Please model this.
Amino acid sequence: MSAPSVAAAEGFLVHEARLLDEARWDEWLALFTDDAWYWVPTSPDQSSPHDTVSLIYDDRRLLETRVRRLSNPHIHAQNPPARASRIVANVTVEKAEADAAVARSKLVMVEYRRNAQRLFAATVRHRLVAAGGALRIAWKRVDLINCDAELEGLVLPF
Amino acid sequence: MNIEPASLRERLRPGRVHRSLYTDPEIFALEMERIFGRAWVYVGHESQVAKPGDFFATRIGLRPLLMVRHDDGTIRVLHNQCAHRGAMVVAAESGHASEFRCCYHGWTYRTDGRLKSAPLLNGYPGDFDPADPRLAMLPVARMAVYRGFVFASLAPDGMGLEDFLGPMTQSFDDMVDRAPDGAIEVAGGVFKHAYDGNWKLYLENLCDAAHPNFVHQSSIEAANQQSDLVHSDGAGEIAVRQMRQNGAPYSFWESQVGIWTYPNGHSYLGDYHDDAKLVAALEDPVFREYIAALEQKQGKARAREILEVRRWNSNVYPNLSFMSQFQQLRVVHPLSVSRTVVYTYNFRLKGAPEAIFHRTIEFANTVNGTGSLVLTDDLETYNRIRMGMSSAGAEWLQIGRGFETDRDDGNGGRRGLNSTSEIYIRNMFDAWLGYVSAP
Model:
């Protein structure tokens, strides 16, 4: 195996965005490694999820719980459900190693629910590892440009 | 404001409240004038302005204020408003400054709000005097500090802060005393979550022991189905345990948890986090390490005394709720009759192991986080309440559970038979009526 190319990384990220847009939560979860984490900080240069609060900070156990809740019929915050459209662009590959790399991309997500649309923009970093002929996510960090704004609840993953 | 006191009294009946108190813009304007304009309102913690020149932008209701540490070491709470043309002087959320200069015409103020200098001080009317103390970023009418918690009041007269807090002072003591070094500091960032609903709903919900099984059903079930064998770095462990705890049956809330209420609208849920009910139980290695640090600094007997205080959420009406076990503090900012934003803060216990602070952060993400699996269903519920209340079908809302069985607590307050009593809502409306019907 070798570090993923820009084309491979972009293909992977577009696939991930599609799984999320189509609410294929279990398939999305399967993209992550067994000790992965998923992080949406509350400040632009946040250095750690452990000493500062985060909009979302999930280790693998909490990410599984989050995904399971998204399919629970009693999730009031998704009644009615939200729909989202995610655009991934400006993909570059940084810190390439033997069989892993950090992919940096821009995300624009439009979320619709109950007659209102919200627009999110973020810089996203994925650490992608090549394993068994496929890429998986070892960690994912989403830096929203409005991460420190007054925000209504965030339910759909970015 | 032209709402007659009788009309206000008529909107409350024993065990019932008229929906207009959550939906009427005139009522909201009256609340801003007579509750937020008169009560002691929490504006910040002294650690947010630790050094002279440190400032923190805060507010009372819709009014922007500035909490600042002056050169002499005292804390001042100032109107964040230029005496010249009224512009907000300080735009940053927090920071450090030796003086404050207005962006509009350069009027410049000292850190106690006094005017230091201004250009073009010529040609004003004869009674204009640059030394007039009213030409300042004016201090609020009153400010007072209890154990580091800073309160301000826009009313020149009224009871003192400690009289206002009453037995709630013990909840603040509990927040501070849990620190091995006897001091706490705001740390770890802030959540700012907003909802389309009335501000009163938020405080009501924080003492509501009957809602988790319904509001939080999705996260309770998801947590109950979660394998504990899956990798966690600690974040998921705390979160999953707390979400499961939210699913405690009514028999738990009815037999093991209590609700206490006091004059001026305050209340707390109590008897919650003793050894058997702790989310991070006493056997937890991180918590044991913390207890050892507390015992070392305070002695075993005093440590025991400190840990035996079993208050969960403490509400100080009208804008504050906090809890000691995980060092959380929430500040409610009303924006309109149907729009509210809540800022939530965390405290570091000085002298405690850093791992305890990590638990504080993990807990904050779980229950106060804008992307929390728990809070997002609360926010949706507040939105549904706003939408439902706009219907005139049910004019009178029911807040009567426990009405017949509430009793004196022997400490100047009233308590429910158990935590499912809605006495905390009735108590807040008793205080509400006192505020809004006073001329």
Observations:
- Chain A has one domain: 6-144.
